[in-house]
Amino acid sequence: MFKKLKTEIGHFKSQTHNFQILVLTNLVYAIVLPVIDIFVAAYVMRSSNDPVKVVIYQLTIYAGIPLTFLLNGFLLKHFNIRKLYSAGMMLSGVSMMIMMSLKTLDLVGIGFAGITMGLSFGFYWSNRDYLALAITNDTNRNYYYGLETFFYTIIAVVIPITIGWFIESSGDEAQIHTAYLVITGIVFLVTVAASIVCFRGTFQNPEQKKYVFFKFHQLWYKLLSLSLLKGLVQGFLVTAPAMLIMLLIGKEGALGTAQSIGAIIAAVIMYVLGRISKPSDRIKIFTTGLVLFALGAVVNGLLFNQTGVIIFILLLLVAKPLMDLAYFPIQFKVIDIVSKIEKRGEFAYILNHEAGLFAGRFLGAGTFLVLAYAISTEIALRYAIVIVAILQLSSIFVAKKIIAEGKLLSSDEPVIDSKVLSEVAEKMV
Predict the structure, then answer these.
(1) Is the distance from CB of 35 to CB of 152 less than 8 angstroms?
(2) pTM given for the model
(3) Chain centroid offset of residue 370 CA
(4) Which of 21, 106, 118, 415 fits as disulfide partner to 201, beta carbons 3.0 to 4.6 Å?
(5) Which of 8-12, 75-79, 139-143, 159-163 has the lowest mean pLDDT?
(6) Mean pLDDT of the chain
(7) What torsion do the CA atoms of 24, 29, 34, 37 make, to the nearest 10 degrees?
(8) So where does this one cross the membrane (predicted)?
(9) Does domain 14-201+216-411 have CATH number 1.20.1250.20?
């Protein structure tokens, strides 16, 4: 066992310095991600008892992200990428402070906190995606995302259950609010620590080229359709587990426990897959994740009780990292190909990709809001997830087409048209 661990550590150390620093930066920041993703939504749900407000909060976050991607492209001409990356992480703590300072959770306050969190995510993800693209290649991207996901899920074993029971054991509502304030302070300190680690890297800004384009290669349009399908689920899936548990179970402790149990299983799966899988395995991994997510959504929709929610969350905690483990390397491979064909900087595609995600998120969250206002929030929570999960299954066919076309475009061998080949054969005869 110790020998195997030593081998894995040696493999990590064999990677480049920037590879190691980026993983360590994201490892530290991963400590606060469960808080941002889960317990902020739980706080809104507890304080307002209104799932619609939770989804509106999520929509304002997603509205801020693409705007910040665009702003980040401009700021990269004037600031080092490490500063912008660090600013994104620290803004998440600031957003939580804004939320906790609100005396009443009205739509204006929730929207302002959401926009701030959107700014945080925009700076964080735009720079993180570019750095991950820049420091990896197609042969080690499975390992990179498997390693990252392994650390995320290990942390997700400890953090949700610890915070959940810390909040629940605080006592009355006033003490619970104090507990949320303590957590917010810790989050801010952790984001500072992550920023310090980030500055140990020697990350370089992308080449200063034009970032905004409106016409792309046909392969890129296929990837945009895949990003739209991915965004459909992101539209409210970050907050859906918190809403379901607070509605059907009612306590943060149960929320944390459910997250942690699933994370134990996911952690082992993700590291092993990231370590041993090949680029050719991505479609299998992607399909497995999508099917597990759809299965969990259907079970939750049919049962819509405590058992259904727990099954859904356990399957989601395995499905989501499986989808990400395959999706990001597919995205980066396409960027590698089309950036060379069109002779554009990689950041232009990272920026445009966010537009596809935003369109999907808007449609996903919109589906929830339409069902909530037209029928009821219970129907929305029960069936909106099922609708987007089934729609997202079409991603399997889109991904297959992308991979097949990507192989043709990246092949060193010339591709001969069958019609031309037959004409040549006729002439020879």
Answers:
(1) no
(2) 0.80
(3) 24
(4) 21
(5) 159-163
(6) 83
(7) -130
(8) 21-43, 55-75, 84-102, 108-125, 145-167, 179-199, 219-249, 255-273, 285-303, 309-328, 349-375, 381-399
(9) yes
